[in-house]
């Protein structure tokens, strides 16, 4: 069975195979890279991460930062809206059917 270890830096180790870095560590390192107070090489040495990973995290942070300030409704996909409207339509039909059944059962009893 594969064991998992979590060190103090928030890095999840999968039994000596491959490191999986936590979101907190990625955010912390990417923000430090964006600030530019230290070079990518210095950050890599400090956190034990390859400089290429830091560059990727920084690039992703800069690309997706604007999504933090989008309105909640604008980030929804059209598929979600279509499913939602179909579900509301089905709810309406079921409510009509329920009322009809209540009236029919009241007439029988």
**Which stretches are poorly predicted, pLDDT < 50 over at least 5 residues?**
none
What is the topology, as strand order, of the major beta sheet?
A: 1-2-3
Structural class: mainly alpha
For this structure, the quaternary state is single chain
Fraction in helix: 55-70%
Annotation, overall tally of beta strands:
3
Q: What string gives the helices and strands in order?
A: EEEHHHH
What's the rounded overall pLDDT mean?
Answer: 85
CATH architecture of the largest domain: Orthogonal Bundle
Radius of gyration: 26 Å
List keywords for this structure.
109 residues; mainly alpha; Arc Repressor Mutant, subunit A; 2 domains; 3-stranded antiparallel sheet
Could you please describe the fold and organization of this structure?
The protein has four helices and three strands; from the N terminus they run βββαααα. Helix 1 packs across helix 3. It has two domains: 1-69, Arc Repressor Mutant, subunit A (Orthogonal Bundle), CATH 1.10.10; 77-109. With 109 residues, the protein is mostly helical. It has helices at 23-35, 40-47, 51-64, 78-108, and strands at residues 4-6, 11-14, 18-21. The chain has a three-stranded antiparallel β-sheet.
In short:
It contains four helices and three strands. With 109 residues, the protein is mostly helical.
How is the secondary structure organized here?
Layout: E1 4-6, E2 11-14, E3 18-21, H1 23-35, H2 40-47, H3 51-64, H4 78-108
Antiparallel strand pairs: 1-2, 2-3
């Amino acid at each position: 069975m594969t064991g998992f270890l979590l060190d103090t830096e928030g890095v999840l180790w999968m039994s000596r195979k491959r490191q999986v870095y936590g979101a907190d560590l990625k955010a912390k390192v990417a923000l430090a890279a964006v600030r530019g107070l230290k070079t990518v090489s210095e950050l890599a040495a400090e956190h034990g991460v390859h400089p290429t990973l830091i560059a990727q995290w920084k690039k992703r942070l800069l690309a997706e930062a604007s999504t933090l300030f989008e309105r909640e409704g604008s980030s929804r996909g059209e598929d979600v809206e279509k499913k939602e409207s179909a579900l509301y339509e089905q709810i309406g039909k079921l409510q009509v059917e329920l009322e009809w059944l209540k009236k029919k059962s009241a007439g029988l009893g």
